[in-house]
Automatic annotation (TrEMBL):
<dbReference type="InterPro" id="IPR036388">
    <property type="entry name" value="WH-like_DNA-bd_sf"/>
</dbReference>
<protein>
    <submittedName>
        <fullName>Metalloregulator ArsR/SmtB family transcription factor</fullName>
    </submittedName>
</protein>
<dbReference type="InterPro" id="IPR051081">
    <property type="entry name" value="HTH_MetalResp_TranReg"/>
</dbReference>
<keyword id="KW-0238">DNA-binding</keyword>
<keyword id="KW-0804">Transcription</keyword>
<dbReference type="InterPro" id="IPR001845">
    <property type="entry name" value="HTH_ArsR_DNA-bd_dom"/>
</dbReference>
<dbReference type="InterPro" id="IPR011991">
    <property type="entry name" value="ArsR-like_HTH"/>
</dbReference>
<keyword id="KW-0805">Transcription regulation</keyword>
<feature type="domain" description="HTH arsR-type">
    <location>
        <begin position="1"/>
        <end position="91"/>
    </location>
</feature>
<dbReference type="InterPro" id="IPR036390">
    <property type="entry name" value="WH_DNA-bd_sf"/>
</dbReference>
<dbReference type="Pfam" id="PF12840">
    <property type="entry name" value="HTH_20"/>
</dbReference>
Length: 106
């Protein structure tokens, strides 16, 4: 799992990985199924899934001769916590700035 969301953000920076991640929102899928919906090869999808898995955003399990990939709630929660923290900091900084400009004489 990434510290401060950096691994998750880096993994999602690639458009193909984002497309795979978004496709998994509909439920678990095999590599072949994902590749059929994307303009990249099955080996490329597998490599992208490896990066997403290492970042803690997806998990896999064997089902017969296939591996099904699904979103990993714990990794998504860590990413969300990181983004929520960034948003809170930005709002706090904005509020402090707004308050400081109100106090200045016109």
């Amino acid at each position: 799992m990434a510290t401060y969301g950096s691994d998750q953000l880096a993994a999602l920076a690639d458009p193909s990985r984002r497309a795979i991640f978004e496709a998994l929102r509909d439920g678990p899928r095999a590599v072949g199924e994902l590749a059929a919906a994307l303009p990249i090869s099955r080996p490329a999808v597998s490599q992208h899934l490896k990066v997403l898995k290492e970042a803690g955003l997806v998990a896999d399990r064997a089902q017969g001769t296939k591996r099904l990939y699904r979103l990993e709630p714990a990794g998504i929660a860590a990413l969300r916590a990181y983004l929520d923290g960034m948003w809170s900091d930005a709002l706090r900084a904005f509020a402090e700035y707004a308050e400081s400009t109100e106090e200045e004489p016109s």
